[in-house]
Amino acid sequence: MDSVMMWPPRLWKVTPLLTNMEEEVGSPKDNQQLTYFSAPAVIDKDSIVLSVEVINKVQMVVKENDWIELVSEVKDIRKKISITTVKIAVTGDSGNGMSSFINALRLIGHEEEDSAPTGVVRTTQKPALYFSSEFPNVELWDLPGTGVTSQSMENYLEEMGFDKYDLIIIIASEQFSSNHVNLAKAMQRMKKRFYVVWTKLDRDLSSSPLSEPQLLQNIQKNILENLQKEEVKEPPIFLVSSIKTLAHDFPKLRDTLKEDIFGISNDDFLGTLFSICDETINEKVEGIKGYIDADTLCSRYEILDPDNLEECEKVFQKIFGVDDKSLHQVAQTMGQPDAFYMDAKQSQVIQMYPQDGSTLSWLYHSGSQFLFIRLDSVYCCFNSNYYRHKQQKCVLGKVAEETKKILRKILKDSIFLPEVLSPALYPTSTPS
Question: What span, in angstroms and rounded, lies between the C-alpha atoms of 57 and 219?
Fold first, then answer.
């Protein structure tokens, strides 16, 4: 998906609260903190994955606690994401073997018609696009090396347009130069996911007097030391041979790449869904707090004993759709046992807020601090309505956090778990 990108002129903010769906956002420079490592705050208005209609639908089903419909909606989104293009750039110093690496990654020979041209002289003069059947919906961009022009690194970064790529692979061989370090620093500054790949390992092994384990350790140590000097956090590092594509770190590189491609495609939209759900739940919390403050909670939700915190908890769980019956249905939908989602519930309200009539005991357990010197504080502490409302809000907050936790699990599982024919869509029985 999108990391640090050249944003279109009109964007939609997702957080906070998604109340203004067509709010102007600043320049591309203002958005350079948005990456797929954290929950995104911006969605392109032309997105086919998370359109305004989809966002509104997600908000609606969360408000209505319709988890089965939420699962269905997320699975529809996942199908659209599966065709989303991920852009990967391969860069490094000229002569480091970027084109050879791309051919090796694509499992094709240099002599094949659509292979990246290689040679001892500079062969890539401008960014070249390649595809691989092993990585569907992925664009592999072979960039000219940093030695192609005499321009500064900043000019090179701007000229190559690194902002439009989702993942960067920095290729090095023979030495880990200052250019490699500067590229890594730039990627970290831009909050880009990047790898360091040391190629031509076969040549190193054939010419070095060191044993293979010692040589590999020395190369890894040299790369890390150079990065640490410039305070670059350790990235994934792979030592490979573009000739022996099944040896050394190449299999590990492929597996990591596949995982990250999947993550790039899903993390942004998943983080956005988290934001939508959290804000919708927060809205519900504020609405219920209004009933608590007005002392109408019991009449609104038919609570028989307002001092019974266990009863309040069960009512709140039903309001938020995380009662046993609702979780049973969503577990069936996901093809999982009931405990799969019920384990996320922490039924400890009675232990946290003992109903022994002791205000001081409750204050101790809740961690609240009051000033007993002031008369109004003393009044608040021993006023039964205030005490009850405070307890109810604590239970409400706990249930709301439980709900967010369960929703995150439902959303993640809707993406990662295999499709099942859900009996919950046609329930025959549910727990009382």
Answer: 52
Closest by alpha carbon to 55, among 83, 77, 85, 81? 77
Helix (H, G, I), strand (E, B) or coil at 410: helix
Beta strands in 207-320 (DSSP E): 237-239
Burial (CB count <10 Å: 0-12, 13-18, 19+), residue 342? middle
- Tell me which residue of 7, 262, 45, 314 sits closest to 135, measured CA to CA: 262
Strand pairing report for 167-172 and 86-92: parallel
Q: What is the pLDDT along the chain (432 residues), one digit of tens a residue?
A: 333 333 232 233 333 333 333 333 233 333 333 333 333 334 444 444 567 888 888 899 899 988 888 888 888 877 776 677 889 999 998 888 888 899 889 888 766 666 676 654 455 578 899 988 888 889 999 998 886 554 578 888 888 999 899 999 999 998 898 899 999 999 999 999 999 999 989 899 999 899 999 999 999 999 999 999 999 999 999 999 988 888 899 999 999 998 888 777 766 677 788 888 999 999 999 999 999 999 999 899 888 888 888 999 999 999 999 988 888 888 887 777 766 666 666 555 444 444 444 433 333 344 444 333 344 444 445 567 888 899 999 999 999 999 999 988 888 887 766 554 343 333 333 443
141, containing H or E segment: strand 138-142
DSSP tag of 142: E
CB 45 within 8 Å of CB 266: no
Phi-psi label, residue 367: left if phi above 0, alpha if psi -120 to 50, beta otherwise:
left
Non-local CB neighbours of 407 within 8 Å, separated by 6+ positions = 62, 274, 277, 281
Angle at 198 between CA 195 and CA 200, to 5 degrees: 145
Copy the structure tokens of residue 262: 């999947």
Three-state SS at 12? strand
C-alpha separations of 226 from 111, 144, 189, 199, 242 in Å:
36, 23, 17, 17, 24
What tokens appear for 355 in the block?
A: 């109903």
